[in-house]
Structures are given as structure tokens and as C-alpha cells.
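Fig. S4 source data, part A: sequence.
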Amino acid sequence: MVPRRAFTITEKVDIISRLESGENNVDVCKQLGVSHSTISAIWKNRVKILECFLSKSTKMKRNRKSTYPDIERALLAWFKEQRNQNVISGRLLQEKANQFARQLGKRNFECTGSWIYRFRQRNDIKLGKVDEEAAESHTSFPEEVNDEIKVTDNLTDNKIIEPVLLKQEEEDEEEDCDQCEIPTTQDALCALETLKKYCLFGEGRNKLDLESIVKMEYTLQRAQRTQQLLQDRFSENRRKRQVDFVFSDDPAEIGDGRGTYFIKYNNVPMGVERVGDRLFITLPRRRYGIPATLNYVNLQERSRSPALKPYPTVEDRSLISVYRTRADECGRLWMVDTGLLEIPGDPQQIRPPAIVIYNLNTDRQILRYDFKTSDIPATNTPTGLASITIDINGDCDDAYAYVPDLTTFGLIVFSLKDLDSWRLSHNYFHFNPTAGNLQVSGEFFQWSDGLFSITLTPPARCRTAYFHPLISTEEFSVSTCLLKNKTASTDRYYFDAYNYVGDRGRSSQSTMHGYHEKTGVIFFADIGRDAVSCWNSGNILNPANVAVLVRDGKRMSYPSDLHITGDEVWVMANTLPRFGYSRLDPNEYNFYIYRANVYDLISDTVCQSKSMFDQ
């Protein structure tokens, strides 16, 4: 007897394609080692299989399924019974979901606010107490909840759990379309061509109308164009499922004795910067188990998923938590060490927040400047010191650093020559509340981050500093001469010296941005639309003058850093919201580093000026 084999949805589509091209059923059976009836069943159900395969490409993002369907079934049944008897809050739903998770043996499940939000979105649930008529009119519950779980006035948790466990056992024995791999757009387009042949001529029981096929084809072709843009314009330099390190010693020996020296899952890269043959990568300490906050990889290494090397050495313990770095033309690497372990529920300020500078030729620390008390107005201010911009005009000793404070809405200016710092305030440093609702990596949340990124025009005595809050779609500017004047904030015209530049458009909330000196083009890392965009600063800033260069909801999810090095744009994407609000899948690629040539990026876009290539 030929053993039964379970095929994935992609393998089934491949079998259908082989049979469609004229390959013999018997030959396919022999090659795959399965019975004739197995292949015949796939061919008989080809329309349904193709539709299922295509639905993964066109509907996955819009109709995201629950990662824990058994918990959702139980919670839905409980909610249906309770909704016309008690007032149900979101917190009560969370507690009940966690309770069902324990009863169902889901040890890794922890119900978050965003999970409840998506649960309510999927099932059209409005909280509070409803009358019986309204309850009866509620029709969004899946059929299996109504059919398998008979709701009564005395429904107990055990009565809810039993049919859910039974359903779970049944699903373990058969393939679930929603759990299958997501096909590439090219595979999906090929499947669509086959499906069109059957459906348009009425073959099969499920006949698609022409309008549905056209919409599906348009969606797939648009997705294919977007993916092709990412491949054409950006070179995927490095990618990681999870972060690894190169240790000179056994991690267990140099750890803290509690098993928290290295917890692979907790290591989420944030910043990236190329300096020569080294690529610096930061991992701020927002959880336990992060061996080194500043690291690098050698670009001469061929591996696309290399292990990180702690900088300057594994033994160095001086840095606590660094978000992003910036190198200057004087061979120095600058950063802000927040000095803070940002452990949820247990933050620990290990050292005062400080500006730290390394000599890149010797890899030695040459300065640690602790911020003054007047620079840090609140205990949570260090959490917002997430970037740094360096300003040098020919004299390496007369350098300035600008440090945005996204948490308590300020700007810290540091003078290397005077070893002094001062804090500036302005309304433009605050977030825009109308831009605070975000949907990234399938997570829905609201943020209130203020001043985040500053980028400068070419070196001069007075440069233009372009800046923006993270939670805003607007850009602002100010002269660096004002920033470098320690007493400027006491001038009566101080607030009028700042300028509103324009609006980049809907969903253009941006982490970092960078100015390319030769072209005057500014590049933005747009978290609101999983994209990289550009604007030629010689034009008025409005949505029509902003070009979205690449956009990808998976591989460009949450671009956390963007930096211009020469004529190259470097971008880090790290899927951060999923780490914070849900859970990363360690079997998928979660972290990406991209590199692109500036001129290739802006070619044939609104960012390219007519004279740009006439030099």
C-alpha cells in the first residue's frame, strides 16, 4: 500500500501545473511516491486549491487570521454568552483570553491590547452591554462557534473548551489553507492564469466572475511591481532571522549567572552605518539578554547573515544602550549612550546618559560626556535620546552634536570645543496628535514620539537643519547658527526663527532622514507606509513632490534607520512593532539591511532635477 503524503498548497499547485502541461498522472505518482487517488483528488479539486493559493497573495494583509484560532473560538463563545448579561471591557476580554490559553495549553500566548483590538476587528465586536435584540442581530460569529458550541445561560469554561479541543484535533489532521506558506507573486500570477482557464469557461463548482479575476490580477501585478522596485533599486546587503554573535569566550562564563547574558530572541537591531569596510549595528538594551549594544560586521565577509562582533571588544562593558551612531569626516564614531536598561516594568539607569566618541583608527574611546542635569528634565528623558547628528565645518576640534529628545520634546546641543551642552525647546519638537495612529507589521497602536531626526545641508558656517518628529508628516527647519548660540533661546525672536517647510503626505511618518549633498535630495525612512521616499529640497514640500521609491510591507517593515554615506543610502528594517506588541517568528527573516545608489534611486522620479545628470 502506497503511504499517504500531505502536500503543501504550493506543492499542490505545482502538481496541477504539471498535469495541465500534459504530464502523465502515472509518472507524477511514481516520482512523488503517492497513490493515483491522491493525485486524482488534487486534480478534481484544482479550482478550490488555486483559489486558496491565490487568496494567500491577495487577501492575507487585509484579512489577517488569528494566530491562535482555538483561543479565539473559545473567547467568541464566551463573549456571545456574556454580552447581554454583563458589561464587557477590553481588559476583561484580555484576562479571559489568557485564562483560555492556559486551559488550552498555550504557554507562549500572552494576550496584548493589540491582539484584542484585532480580535474585535475580525469579529465586529463592540464592547459594553447590549440588549437582547441587538445581541440577536449580531451576525459576525463564525459558523463553527454557533454550530459546535451551543450557547446556554449556564455555559461553563469546560463546555467551551471541549469542542474547541475537538476542532483543534480535526485541524491537526488536515491542511489549513490559512496556515500554508505565502506564495510569491510570480507563482500566484501563474496560478491565476490556470484558474482563469477553468473559471471563465464554467469548469468546476466554484465559478469566479470576470470582475473578481480582474481585481485579483491587478492586485498581484501591483504587488509584483512593488517587489521588483525593491529588487531593482535596493541591494539586500544583509538579512537575519535572529541575531548571532562572535564570542571570544563562553557566554555562560562571562554572563551574569542568571542566564540573561544572551537571549537570542531579545536582540533586535536598530541602527546601521557603514564606515569603510565595517558595518556598525546597534542593539539598544530594551530587554535582558543583549551581550553588546554596539557591534559591527566586516563587509568583506561573504555571508548575508553574519554573526555580530561586539565593538570595540567583547570585554568592553562601558556602553549600556545605544540606538544609532554617526561617523564624522575626522575618523570618529559618535553616539548617545542612554545609560538605561529599558526593561518593561523594571527600568534601570545604570550610568548617566552621555555622548560617547570613539577613534575609529585605534578603536579607543576618546570621550564620554555626561549630560548636565539641565539637559535631562525628567527621569524618562533618556529613553528618547535615540539619534545624533554631527556638525563640522572644517575644524575637527570645533564640532557640534545635535541630540533630539523624542520623549520630553527637546533638543540638546553639545559643543566639543567647549565641552558644554544646552537644551532648546520649541512647539515644532512636539508630536502631531492627528498622526499618532499607526498600523505596522500587522499591529495597530498609537504613539506620541516627538523630535526624532535632524539632517543638515552641506558644511558652512550656518547650515540648514531639517528636522521632524516621528509622529508627524510635516518637516521643519532652522539655521544651525541659532542652535550653536547658547543664549539664542532668550532672544525675543527665537521662536520665529524656526520654519515650517511642508507636509510629506498621508502615512509618511518617518524615523530617520538623510540629506545627499550633491543633489540636495532628502531621503526618508517611512514607517507609516513601510517605505523609503525622497524629496528634492529645491522644490516645495508637498505630497506631489515626494516620490515613494520602494514599499514592501514585509521586507521594509519599520525602517528604523537610514543614513547617507557618500552616494549610497543605507537602510535598516527591523519589524519592531511586532516585537513590541506581538511576537516575531524566529523562522522568518525579521531584520534587513539595504544599500542603494542615490542616482539609481531617484532616476525618473520627481526627486531628479533636470540639470542633475548634465554635469
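Fig. S4 source data, part B ends here. The chain has a mean pLDDT of 80.
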